[in-house]
Amino acid sequence: MPATPLGTLQPRSQVIDRAWRALGPGLEPLSGPGGAPLTRAVKLLVLPLVLRPVLRPELAGDLLTDEAADRAAGLLREDGPRLAAAAGWFTLLKRVRRALRVVGGNPQDLYFQRCYELAAEHGAPRPPDADEVARQVVLELAARDGGRTVEALKAHLRDPATERSVAEALSRAWGARPVPAAPGAVPEADALSLADTVLDGCAPADRGASGKRGTECAAERVSGKRAPGGAVPADGPRHRAQERATDRRDPGGAGGGTAESALAVLVGGGHGTRLGAALWAAGPASAWGPEGVPPHLGLSAAPLPPRPGVGSTASTAALPAPLDRTLYERVFTVLRAPGHHDLPPVPELVAAETARSCSPLGLSDESLRVALLVGGRLAAGLDPLGTASGPTRAHRAIDRRWRRESSVARARRMTVSPFDAPIARGAGAGGPGAGLPDVGRPGAGAPTAGLPDAEPPDRPGADRAAAPAPDGGAPGTGPAPTEPPASGEDLLADLGRSLRTPWIAYTRRLWARLHGRDAHAAGIDGPAELWSLLDGVSYSVLMDHRARVRAALRTLTDTTSGSAA
């Protein structure tokens, strides 16, 4: 089958935007000021309910062939009346919500998909029956939260007596921490050896260079068509599904039993607790491997993680590093995550988080602490820009996925920096990115600027979801850059720097998912579940990287168009 010429591919986002605008009036409640569909409308309505790329692989990629683009536009045209009806229901539900004084949750997250269901069942809303239907839906969704909302958290901690009680409990828990007198290297050598055994055994067996390279492989991935001989294109949806199915059938192949034993030794020996406790002691040396990786892996902006305060505000766009967050910020992220209605009531959630925030690594379950240790070992050895083979199967599997990204390949080719700035790590032998000068402005060594870590924690069982974070891993969650990126070229330079410090984005997102599992009392049960978690975090960070690349390219395109005009 001949390859699809790359010149005929169209960005799926542009196809959706054109088709949406062509639907005409009636979609204003689901659209932005310029008439384009809202981001949540695309994520919650267009993709899962109209285009349904899981059932139509040719629509799953970021780039569509002309044939796939026509198919997507046709599906949106066919569903136009239902989307207009859903927009009418959304307007009605918001009006009823205000009348009932319901304030919990984001209306778009809560109501978009329910409005689509109402449109499919009832068509456009027609009074007086529609008013009663809307009232029942609003009350049903409000009752489902059971008071487990950010507003309930604010009210709980706003009480002066409660705030004093929580502050005293934090002080007692912080004073009871197990701080070692004289820690050695972090982590310990035997813990690293066991972590390598787990990473070698839980990941899928090395498959070599699967799929094609170059133009043919790219065209197959975006078109969803099979390669000659029936081979599945590398990194396509079916390829990833087959990999996950193989992992569940035989986690790690022959090494599965060894990985299970090593994981049991790590948990039974309290190695996760020992790692977290060592981070509280003064002056621990980093033993993660590559030069420049701090002992805390970027989970804190300070040399030693500080004592958490009570706090009273939080924003997903400006969350501190995980171990620097207040109690309010930690509970806030849990309450905004899917599945929060299964959590305990807010007072119990605050009490549990008080103890958890003063526990090693900010986690209370030892299997989750060990998962962070193993994930940290994986993250510290990732080398998206390199060409060498990673130390374990897990490193090699994730490096292969990243190196197939066109943006990563371009960054690897950029071996001369216009500023000739040193990189923050890797100049020594063996470090990821070794020998590659930095790309971008002076001061590019700051590795935390604009990196994603604001992902709401996952609920249990969501680790396999190969999808971006609900908030896209909002940038700006680490220390602020000295000067904000002013152009698409600066944004691309920031992306290049993040590829040289991949452990920061990975460990922060991993911590968010582990924290969510801890809140739901869901530990890690065996190497297969651990690999599903680690692999899911890798793919989530990769999707966030793709989104940031697209944003940078759009900025460059807009700048170029403006200059030409």
Automatic annotation (TrEMBL):
Compositionally biased spans, kind Basic and acidic residues: 213-223, 236-251, 396-407
Annotated region described as Disordered, given as residue ranges: 205-259, 389-490
Ranges of compositional bias, category Low complexity: 463-480
Name of the featured protein: Uncharacterized protein
